[in-house]
Amino acid sequence: MTSSSRAAAPSPRTAPEVLGDALLARIRSRAAAHDADNSFPFDDVTELAEAGYLRALVPVQFGGLGLTLPQLATEQARLAAHAPATALAVNMHLVWTGVAKAMHDRGDPALDFVLAEAAHGAIFGFGVSEPGNDLVLFGSGTDAAPQPDGGYRFTGTKIFTSLSPVWTQLGTMGLDSSDPARPLIVWAFLDRADPGITRTDDWDTLGMRGSQSQTTRLDGAYAAAGRVVRKLPPGPVNDPLIFGIFATFEILLSAVYTGIAQRALELGVAAAKRRRSAKNDGRSLAQDPDIRRRIAQAAMLLDAVNPQIQELGRDVDALADHGAFWFARLAGLKHRSVESAKEVVDLMLRVNGGASYFTGDELGRLYRDVLAGLFHPSNSDSAHATVAAAWLGPLDV
Q1: What is this structure's pTM?
Q2: Domains of the chain
């Protein structure tokens, strides 16, 4: 697609038209119950689909809403401020549509079917994480066995499979070691109807409970040749698919945790204005210098993250070239946004006081939810290693 054809495309709907205030209010009203019951937010996903949100990033010519990545990041932050687990769950579907769009924008149509199917109601799951696999995108403990017809059968265990109760297509990867001299990481999409796919109802966690990111077991699950989208050598590789996954995942994930922090700040401000101090003649805690400093510190942390999310989102859409610093900037964004969000929620707990320690308090729930950000790639160690390599070069071997 040329730049002129992109410029001639219909103007995208603005983000607030997708997630209206009434919809977000309904979603927020259900969030506490899904957390308490450890249940999946079927109603949320249904309403989001009806509003067109699951096709928000799909270009207009494919039947989508044509939002930009920065616009969607803004909406994901808004959704996360109302229901973090719902936002995290749909994030994985939105990542796949974002990867497909990023590849399409760069002249690679391999995932155009994802855009077309998402526009017609398909829900995509993210079946990548594996127990004990800290190579993440660059290695796999799942076996990908080549078939005579060009398809593959996948056998292995995938964890943290968000949207487990509802996804219809699973983007996944495995290792084809049929030629020991030339192993390949195979990326493909599986249909939920395949008998080789089962899920384990094992999601009973500290936070993000409504995401129901259950374990998925593959036992010879079949991907037809037309659903096999990449065969790449193990290890870091320069490929539009890998870039698209890394960029879209890190940006939208950062938006989710920033949304949690934004809501925590709102609650902290309200608590500071509501609470009174007996030792200061019943004056509002909003007049307390220590409380004011915590509010200010939280606000400044958020001020530093939002512009970077927007800037990197614009750069992805504009096909910007950051060279060797692309992955460093994306990993740094994820690390900074999650750590900042965690600090903001912690500060607001201190503003709100002991009420946050009781079951059912929203800030207490946000504290449990924000901790999940520590476990998404890139984790702290990986992010620092990536940034160091960009500035200093690789480690000597």
Answers
A1: 0.94
A2: 3-122 (1.10.540.10), 126-232 (2.40.110.10), 240-392 (1.20.140.10)
